[in-house]
Amino acid sequence: MKFQMKTNPLIICSVLMLGVSTGLFAQDKKEGNIQNDDIILEKERKIVLQPQISRNFEPLTEIENTQKGRKMKYEFFDRKWDATNNTLLTTSVIGPREGDELVSSFGPKFKNLVKIGAGNYGHTLLNGHFGFTPKENQFQGVYINHDANRRGPVSMGNSSRNENEAKVYSKTFTGNYFLDGQISFKRTENNYYGRPEAAFASVPFIKDLEIAYNKFNYSGSISNSKKDVKWDYIATSGLTYLTNNYTSKEWIWDSKLQGILRVTDNFSAYLTGEMNMSENTFAFVNNRRELYRVKPTFLYKNNRLAVTGGLNIVNEKDANISMNKTRLFPLLKVDFKPTDFLHVFAGLGGETYFNSYNQYTSENNWLDPRLAPSLQNTTQTSNIYGGIKGSNERNLDFELKFGYSEYNNLAMFLNSTSDPSHFEMIYANTKVEKSAKVFNMSGQVNYQTFDKVLSILKYDFNTYQDIVYDQADLSTINKPIHRPMMSLSFTNSITFKDKIIVSPDLFYISGLYSFEKSLTPKAEPLDDIIDLNLKVNYLITKKFNISVSANNLLGKNYQRYLNYTSQGLNYTVGVAYSF
C-alpha cells in the first residue's frame, strides 16, 4: 500500500506554485444532514461577519432565540494520530466551555464583551473582545485573555501557571472574495513541579522551575464567495514563531490550497496542495525541515452512491539527517446510501503527519529544555476503514467508524533520565520493516430534544500491537507511553426557563502507561481519569450574565503525565457584560 519513489522536482515545483492553504468546499445541504462529500464549505447568499469570542478564539456559532429552538451543530473529523487534547491545568482534561455569555433569552448578544472571574487555587480570569464594523462588508476585532493560577496542586506557588494572549483580526467580504486574517501573541508560563514535596527545598528560586513559551502567529485566507460556481477554492497561509526562556526556537510557514472543479452534476475534480517549511534551533544547532503534499482526487456521486479516488503524494526533507523521501499513497472511499437516514462507507489510504516543536509543547508543557527534541514525522503507511453514519435531519446524528492502520515513528513522551520532571521525545517503530499496528473504533452521537437539551457523545478506542522501541533499555516495552487507549466525552447543555443554561460534562481516559528507567524496566499503568464538570450560566439581562463553573467534581488528583498531578476540585465565578 506504500510505494517508494525518487523525489520528482516537478511535483515539488507544483506544490510551491500552489502556495497557500486549507479549506472545505461544498454543495448545498440541509440542516443536520451528514454529507457524502469529504470536502465541504457551506456558502450563504449573505455572509455574516461574526465576532470571535471564546477563550480558544474559535468562531462564535450563533444560537437562536430559545423560544424558536436551537440548531444542532456537529462536526465529524477523520481521525489523526497527533493528539488534540492539550494539557490544561485548570481542568487537566479539557477547559470549561466558553461563549455561553453571548446568548440570552433575547437572542445573540453584542460584539463587545468583558468578562472577569476568580476562583480557588488563586484563579484569575480576564477575557475581552472589542469589535467594530467600519463598513457593512467588514469586521475588525481585538481579543485579549488572561488566565492564571497563583497556586497549584503541589507545593502551592511552585505549581502555579499563567497564560496571556492578545489577538487582532479582520474579515472582509467583497462580493467575489472573502478575506480573513489575524495576528496574535501568546505567552504561557508553567513550572516543573513534577517532583516529591521534599525536593522543592533544594530549589533556591521559583524561577528556576519555570518553563515559558512565547508564540507569535500570523495567518490569512482568501476564498471564493460566489455561490454555484464551477471552480471553487480556498487558500490560507500562516507563520508561527515559537521561543522558550532557554535557547530553543522554531518557526513554521505552512500553506495550503484546495480547489474543486465541478465538471458535471455528478462528477467533480479536487486538487489539494500543501507546504510546511520549518527551521528549529536547539542548543544553538539549526535544522531545516520541509514537507510538501499534492493530493489530486475525483468524485463521482448520484442519489445513492459516492465514490472518491485519487493519490496522496508526500515529499519530506530533513537537512539534519540528509533525508529527501517521497511517498505515494492510493486513496479510495465508497459511500453508499441504502436509505435516506443511513450511509455505509469504506475506504483506504495513507498519510504522513508533520510533527513540530510547537505541536509537542502544546501537548506537553514540560519538555526538557536542555535536550534537543527529536523531530520526526509520523507515517501512516496504510489505513483501511469502514463504518456507518446517519441523520434523521431533525434531532439525531451519529457516526461509527472502525479502522486498521500501520504506523512508523509514533511519537511518545518519556520522563527524562537526568530529571524525571522533564520529558523527552522518543519514537516507536522507526524501522520501516516493523510497523505498529493500531486497531481503532471511534464515533460520535449528537442528540437534541424538546429544543432544550443538547447532548454530544464522543469516543475513541485503540488497541496496539507490535510496538517496538529501538533503545536498548526500552526493548522489553511494548506499550504506547502516555498515549491513551480509550477517550470518551459526554457534553450536555440544558436550558431552563430560557435564562438558565446548565452544562454537565463527563470526560474519561483509560489505558495510559508511563515508564521510568530502573533495574527492571517495565511500563506501569496510570490510573484511569474521570473528570466531571458542571457549569451554570444565568442570563440576567440582554447585556449581563453571571456564571459558575466547577471542574473535577470528584476531586481526584489524577496524572495525565507521570509525576504531574492535576488540580482537585476547582471552581470559578465569573460575570460578563456585552455591549
UniProtKB/TrEMBL annotation:
<protein>
    <recommendedName>
        <fullName>TonB-dependent receptor</fullName>
    </recommendedName>
</protein>
<feature type="signal peptide">
    <location>
        <begin position="1"/>
        <end position="26"/>
    </location>
</feature>
<keyword id="KW-0472">Membrane</keyword>
<keyword id="KW-0998">Cell outer membrane</keyword>
<dbReference type="InterPro" id="IPR036942">
    <property type="entry name" value="Beta-barrel_TonB_sf"/>
</dbReference>
<keyword id="KW-0813">Transport</keyword>
<keyword id="KW-1134">Transmembrane beta strand</keyword>
<keyword id="KW-0812">Transmembrane</keyword>
<keyword id="KW-0732">Signal</keyword>
<dbReference type="InterPro" id="IPR039426">
    <property type="entry name" value="TonB-dep_rcpt-like"/>
</dbReference>
